[in-house]
Structure to design on (229 residues):
C-alpha cells in the first residue's frame, strides 16, 4: 500500500476567511494528486487534478480562484479555500497517484472536514 | 449511459456468506480497474486493483474482470459485519489525462 496524510483532519472557520488544507504522500513520490469533495450521502466529486510544478486542472464548474491548488513538491499538494462560505462546508479528500507495476494506483488521504460558520 | 455503473444497494448478506458486488463501465478501452471500500464518514481505501481479464485473489477478496463484457466484480468470502461499508468501483478511462471515474457505490450490509 501507500500512505497519504492530510492536515488538518477537521477545521471550523468563519465565513469570509480562508482555509488551507495540506496533503502529503508519506512513503512515495506523487507527480499527480487529486482533490475531491464529498457531501453527506453523496458520491465523490473530483474538483481538480494537481500536477507537481504546473498549474492544476479544474473540473467543470469548480472555481479555480476560489479553490487554489499548489503542488510545489513531489510529496505535497495544498488546497486553499478562499473566502469560505457555509455552502463550502464539506468533506475534502485528497488522493495521490503512485506508479506501480502495470500502471498507477490512487491512494486517498483521511480527509478534512470543513465547517464554515 | 453512466461511465461507471453500480447498483446502489443496499446488498444485505448474512455473516459468513459470499457478497458479490458488480460494476459495468462504458469505455471499452479502459485498462485499469479498482475497488475501494468507504466506511461512513471516512475516506475511500483501496482494496483491490485488476488490470487483466480473469480473477485476482487477495485474502477474502477476489476481483473478476471481463473486458469483453465491460464488467468487473468483487467477491467477498466469509463476509463479516466489519465488511459493512460502501464499495466503490473505479475505472481508469482510456481518455486524455487518465483519471479515475468512480461509480456511485454499492452499500453492503453484513448482518451477524
Amino acid at each position: 500500500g501507500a500512505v497519504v496524510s492530510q492536515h488538518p483532519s477537521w477545521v471550523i472557520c468563519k465565513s469570509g476567511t480562508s482555509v488551507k488544507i495540506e496533503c502529503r504522500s508519506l512513503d512515495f513520490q506523487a507527480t499527480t494528486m487529486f482533490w475531491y469533495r464529498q457531501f453527506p450521502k453523496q458520491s465523490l466529486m473530483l474538483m481538480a487534478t494537481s500536477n507537481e510544478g504546473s498549474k492544476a486542472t479544474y473540473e467543470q464548474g469548480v472555481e479555480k480562484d476560489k479553490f487554489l491548488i499548489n503542488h510545489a513538491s513531489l510529496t505535497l499538494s495544498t488546497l486553499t479555500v478562499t473566502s469560505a462560505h457555509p455552502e463550502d462546508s464539506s468533506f475534502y479528500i485528497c488522493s495521490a497517484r503512485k506508479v506501480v507495476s502495470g500502471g498507477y494506483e490512487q491512494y486517498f488521504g483521511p480527509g478534512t472536514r470543513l465547517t464554515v460558520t | 449511459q453512466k461511465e461507471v455503473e453500480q447498483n446502489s444497494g443496499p446488498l444485505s448478506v448474512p455473516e459468513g456468506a459470499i457478497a458479490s458486488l458488480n460494476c459495468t463501465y462504458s469505455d471499452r478501452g479502459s485498462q485499469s480497474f479498482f475497488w475501494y471500500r468507504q466506511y461512513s464518514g471516512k475516506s475511500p481505501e483501496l482494496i483491490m486493483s485488476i488490470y487483466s481479464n480473469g480473477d485476482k485473489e487477495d485474502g477474502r477478496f477476489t476481483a473478476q474482470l471481463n473486458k469483453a463484457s465491460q464488467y468487473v466484480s468483487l467477491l467477498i468470502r466469509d463476509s463479516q459485519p466489519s465488511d459493512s461499508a460502501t464499495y466503490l468501483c473505479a475505472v481508469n478511462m482510456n481518455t486524455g489525462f487518465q483519471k479515475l471515474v468512480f461509480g456511485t457505490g454499492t452499500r453492503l450490509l453484513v448482518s451477524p
About this structure: Chain B touches chain A at residues 31-32, 34, 36, 41-46, 49, 51, 88, 90, 92, 97-100, 102, 104-105 (CB under 8 Å).
